[in-house]
Structure formats: C-alpha cells, structure tokens
C-alpha cells in the first residue's frame, strides 16, 4: 500500500452516519449494497477528508457534493456557495491521512466558519462569514464521477494526460470492447467524439455506457498519484464487459498510483470485481 492511500476512516455527523468507522481499504475498493444505505455518503466523506488541504479546497468539496446531489442547473455564484457549504456544517472525518472538521459557530450574533485540517499549514482556522471570500478550487488529482459522468471539460483534461503518455490506442481498444462499431476516440473542438462508420459523433449520441467508460478511463489518468471516486460504476455498462472494465481499472490504478473507491448495487458488478 502506498503511504498516501486511505486505509481507515471515521465519519461523524454526516448524512446517515452518526459515528461510523471502517478500515481495511486497499488500492481499489468497491462498496456494494442496496439503494439508500449510505454508499454515496461514505464516498463523499472520504472525498471531503482528502480534499481538506486548505480552506479553499475544503470549501470546494463541501460545495461540490451538495451541488452534485441537487443536480440543479444554477449559476455558480456566491449565494449558492454560501447556502451549500452551510448545509454540510459539523461534519467530522478522521482517516490515517487527514483529520477534517467543519462547523459553524456564532460570535456576537455573527456566523463563524471553523475549519480544522491536520494536513494544512494552518490547521485550525476561524473565518467570519462576512469576511469569507467564497473563492474555492478543486485539487486536480482528486476526482469524483457521479451518475452524469465526467464533464466534457474534465474529459478533455484527462485525454490530454492520455496523449502525453501516447496511450490513445489503449482507450480505443477498450471502447471497441464496449461498442465494436467504435473506430477511435478524439477531442474535436473541445468535444469528446467517437468515430463510427467513418463519421465522428458526440459521445452523448452513443449511450450511457460509452460516456461512462470514457469518463472512467480519462479520470484515472487525471487522478495520477491521487484518488478517484466513482458512483454507480456499472451505470450504463453491459454486464458482459464488466470484467474488462475492472481489469482496466486494476491495471491503470497500479500504473498511475491511484486509489479508487466505487459504489454499486449490482450483483453482477460485485461478482465481476471479486
């Protein structure tokens, strides 16, 4: 196991977890179970724990998980940021990598955000809400894929990493297994496209399985020396190619030094992983 991988975590006061502990994590981890048992919440807590390297990255993680849950097409503005990060108050996570605690206090009738982060130059910070900038940023090699897959912009970034390694043919090989009609994959005018019968089509025209596969592979390259979280990993993917997907993830995660967490409620997906 690499030193930067999570092997154990404690989660308090977050979603369905009052006080939860788990350990024994490896490089690639699959969390299985029925719907609404906390699989996604568990991954979100791990994502927050790892992202909490300073106030801006911690705040981004709090905002990001709420925004993904809401699935709303709202403008990314300060009003929404404030609302979203305040709804996740009092979360506590402690792993072998980091301790991250966020709470909202009050001083003289004014809200004060309290950020506690072990992996930070400033591990204990209090910020008056009126002085908080709401300027966030995400950490490039900590990535989270929800049911909608990677955004086009993120796919473009991940594909650039594939190109730097001259491994475009590897992606094409996997995509042909997903859909034998696919000849190749390219980024054309900042849009992910696949060549089918001599014509390039946006991946949105080729079904959820193709887009999800592209999301998984490009995000692995984007997460080099970091972490990747994949919600409902089998989304849109036919059970007959699950073995291929898992072999690819196991191979690339080792090659790229990425720790992977994924969820599923599919029996076939769990059997394939095992």
From TrEMBL:
InterPro entries with a match to the protein in the record: AAA_GajA/Old/RecF-like, Bact_Antivir_Def_Nuclease, P-loop_NTPase
Q: Name one Pfam family in it.
A: AAA_15
Q: Where are the transmembrane segments?
A: none
Sorted alphabetically, which SUPFAM superfamilies does this protein's record hold? P-loop containing nucleoside triphosphate hydrolases (SSF52540)
Q: Which residues form the Endonuclease GajA/Old nuclease/RecF-like AAA domain?
A: 168-270
Matching PANTHER family, A to Z? ATP/GTP PHOSPHATASE (PTHR43581), ATP_GTP PHOSPHATASE (PTHR43581:SF4)
Instruction: Name the chain's protein.
Output: Endonuclease GajA/Old nuclease/RecF-like AAA domain-containing protein
> What's the source species for this entry?
Leucothrix mucor
